[in-house]
Structures are given as structure tokens and as C-alpha cells.
Write a structure and sequence with these properties.
Layout (H helix, E strand, L loop, with lengths): L11 H8 L7 H11 L7 E5 L5 H10 L4 E6 L11 E5 L7 H8 L4 E6 L9 H22 E12 L4 H11 E7 L10 E9 L7
Helix pairs in contact: 2-3, 5-6
Length: 206
């Protein structure tokens, strides 16, 4: 029997991820985005929000190498990658003490902030879009506060609702803006990825 939306659990990217030892087919999404825009480089410090089960972390680690640092955050624990330069935190990004918890793991700035955060869907499109934008907004706020000048931002969201306002904030904060639907995205998915390239310096204080 055909599944709704044409989703096949063992599709091409599922099989490819298994063959390459990747924890999730979604790893190919960040791999495509990173390669297309040159986001990841050796020695960078990268924050991965919504990181479980670790597919993005694997791609990011490969790109930044042993001289880089990768911080993975998710509401559920992430199985260790077995290397010292990947640290993980199990917490809710919407929790009031999230910033303090993150600072305990890494208190410095980030070269790249990546968010694959997604809400629990309700089936009500407007509600799901609003929840998705809220999570993307948390990631963007963090990138604005703790992202390096010249650094980059990537966030998954369901486009709709207040998307235009969100896009405006990204465009104001970064010198270039891209909207991407990676090839590995499932056919029935509403998701897209917003990419902010080269964070602008803060405006001069008056």
C-alpha cells in the first residue's frame, strides 16, 4: 500500500546514509547547503541546534576537523561521537535557563550557527508554522548575539505566517540571504532552510 505523500522509509538517501555510516538521511541536507555556500571550514566553532541523532554533527565534524569545535544541542540525549571536540547538551532551547546551560558547555562565539529544530506538529498548518518560526527565531537571536562577524546562519523552518518579517531580520543581519530546499528533503515536507551568509558588524554606537 502506498504511503501518504509518497514517503518511502528506505529511499535513496536512507540507503546512502546507511552505506556511509551516517546516523540520519538528513545529514545530506546540511552537506549540500554547506558545500553550495562554503559555510564550513577547518578549525571553526559550530553550534548545531536540534542535533539528534547526530547526522548533522557527523558532517560538521568532518568539515571542521580535529582543530574545530562542534556543540550539539537537542531536547533528547545525543549518542557520543567519541571525539573530544564534539560536546553535546540535552536541553530545551525554549527553557529559561538555556543560555546559561549553553555557556557552561561553550562560552565563546560561534563561526556558524545551524538549526534543524522542528516543533511537534499539530496538523494545523498555521499553528505548526508559528511554532517553527518561534524555534528559528531562537536560533537567529542566538546567532545575532554569539555569532562572529563574518560568520553564517542556517535554520530550518516551515515557511508561512510571519516568514517575511523573519526574512527581513536575517537580511538586515547578514550580507547575503538564501532560501534552500535541499535535494534530500522529503516530497511532502513543508520545510525550507534559511541561510544567512557573512554576518554584518554591529552598527556603531551613537
Amino acid at each position: 500500500m502506498a504511503r501518504r505523500g509518497g514517503y518511502k522509509p528506505k529511499d535513496h538517501y536512507f540507503q546512502k546514509a546507511k552505506a556511509e555510516g551516517l546516523r540520519a538521511r538528513s545529514a545530506f541536507k546540511i552537506d549540500e547547503i554547506a558545500k553550495r555556500f562554503g559555510l564550513l571550514k577547518k578549525g571553526q566553532t559550530v553550534l548545531d541546534l536540534g542535533a539528534a541523532p547526530g547526522g548533522f554533527l557527523q558532517v560538521i565534524l568532518d568539515a571542521v576537523g580535529p582543530s574545530g569545535t562542534v556543540i550539539g544541542v537537542d531536547v533528547v540525549p545525543i549518542r557520543s561521537l567519541g571525539v573530544p571536540n564534539v560536546r553535546t547538551l540535552a536541553t530545551d532551547v525554549l527553557a529559561p535557563d538555556f543560555d546559561a546551560e549553553l555557556c557552561e558547555v561553550h562560552g565563546g562565539p560561534f563561526d556558524v550557527v545551524v538549526s534543524d529544530l522542528a516543533p511537534k506538529t499539530s496538523g494545523i498548518r498555521t499553528t505548526d508554522e508559528a511554532r517553527s518560526l518561534r524555534l528559528a527565531g531562537v536560533a537567529l537571536d542566538l546567532a545575532q548575539r554569539r555569532g562572529r562577524v563574518g560568520g553564517h546562519f542556517v535554520a530550518k523552518l516551515f515557511m508561512g505566517g510571519d516568514f517575511d518579517a523573519f526574512r527581513g531580520v536575517v537580511k538586515a543581519a547578514y550580507t547575503d540571504f538564501k532560501l534552500v530546499r535541499p535535494e534530500a528533503t522529503r516530497g511532502g515536507s513543508m520545510e525550507v532552510y534559511v541561510v544567512g551568509l557573512s554576518k554584518r558588524p554591529p552598527p556603531p554606537s551613537s
